[in-house]
Design goal:
Strand content: 15-25%
Radius of gyration: 21 Å
CATH superfamily of the largest domain: Response regulator
Structural class: alpha/beta
Oligomer: single chain
Shape: globular
Number of strands: 15
Helix content: 25-40%
Length: about 375
């Protein structure tokens, strides 16, 4: 799915580079030796291998190594520099494609490059909230990646009910479009499974934390739910997911997480829905080098594009089999006319408990 992409441009001039953290295979290389075709801009001074940014970097490196091009990542150091400086540094090193991951305000910082560097293409990997009906600011050298979180949430809700759970919970982080997508999809997947299995009643507690930080408050919230009878919680709350997992372990409850990286997932985590950040960025880089860069558009990756899903080989489902998962997966793939086998509501419904459900009963927790 592709949507029109509108951008508000800001001034981004070449400035001093004191706030730029340059990184790559060898940080002591000379400026000439560190020139790159593909640049990744991230927030902060480190890039952890299993992090959101780390998976994007993994995809960039894989593409670069396979196709014989150079790449570098650049960090925007807190309180030392700005995104303007870092983008200017990447351009000075010959970047032809700049992949940007970080706060949404980076959008307003870098997009004047459309005017100053028409031979540079920009790819954004973060959340968008842009008007679909305004073409006046369309940028041919700017594109975005988005993910269909509602589809991953649907898989989680469907699998939870097929697995036999009837008292569920959803804990989101901030009330953003991605968190809403996970939550709304979870409700609708649970409803679909309940209808197919002729289950009359599934309870779902539903809550947004308003933040994504791990903490005792999150552990206490989840523990209270488990003690009150909730059997499984689906989490979409960033670092706070680890606190929900702690509560599940202590309470002998279950969790389905979203992109939670743990060295050894505990028994409480029965599955994790994942975004294929690496694969998505490789697909977009392939399009760029093939002369098919989708400038002016947001390109969405979902289940049909293998951009979202559950790795069934890494779950502890007993009733929800891979065969059933694969059958469900087919419903997301468009037919020859472009129609899909199911519809998942998100923005059309302003409040989650207004979703059209018959078997699922939603309790909003303030």
């Amino acid at each position: 799915m592709r949507r029109k992409l509108a951008f508000f441009l800001a001034i981004c001039m070449a400035v001093s580079l004191t706030g730029c953290i340059r990184n790559g295979e060898d940080e002591v290389k000379s400026m000439k030796e560190t020139e790159c075709e593909i640049a990744l801009i991230v927030e902060g001074e480190t890039l952890e291998e299993d992090s959101h940014d780390g998976r994007i970097w993994e995809g960039i490196q894989s593409y670069a190594q396979t196709n014989g091009v150079t790449c570098q990542w650049f960090g925007v150091a807190e309180k030392e520099g700005t995104c303007q400086e870092v983008v200017s540094e990447a351009v000075s090193q010959g970047a032809r494609v700049i992949v940007v991951s970080g706060p949404s305000d980076y959008q307003q910082t870098v997009f004047s490059m459309e005017q100053e560097c028409l031979d540079v293409s920009f790819l954004f990997m973060n959340e968008f909230d842009l008007p679909d009906d305004d073409d006046s600011l369309k940028s041919d050298n700017v594109a975005g990646i988005a993910f269909k979180e509602e589809e991953a949430g649907y898989l989680a809700g469907y699998g939870a009910v097929v697995e036999g759970y009837r008292s569920l919970g959803f804990i989101g982080g901030e009330e953003t479009s991605d968190s809403i997508g996970y939550g709304y999809g979870f409700i609708q997947g649970a409803e679909a499974a309940a209808q197919e299995l002729h289950v009359n009643h599934v309870d779902v507690k539903y809550h947004y934390l308003g933040h994504t930080q791990a903490g005792d408050d999150v552990t206490a919230l989840a523990a209270g739910w488990y003690e009150g009878g909730v059997e499984l919680i689906f989490t979409a709350c960033g670092d706070a997911e680890a606190s929900v997992v702690t509560a599940a372990e202590d309470s002998k409850g279950k969790v389905i997480t979203t992109d939670l990286e743990l060295p050894e997932p505990p028994a409480a985590v029965i599955a994790s829905v994942e975004k294929d950040l690496s694969g998505a960025v490789q697909k977009m880089l392939t399009d760029y080098y093939n002369g098919e860069f989708p400038g002016g558009e947001i390109v969405s990756f979902g289940v049909a594009e293998d951009g979202m899903g559950i790795s069934m080989d890494a779950t502890s489902f007993e009733e929800f089999s891979k065969l059933e998962y694969d059958k469900l997966h087919q419903q997301f793939i468009p037919d020859a006319q472009g129609n899909v086998g199911l519809e998942i509501l998100t923005e059309e419904v302003p409040i989650v408990n207004e979703l059209p459900t018959k078997a699922v009963y939603i309790s909003l927790v303030e």
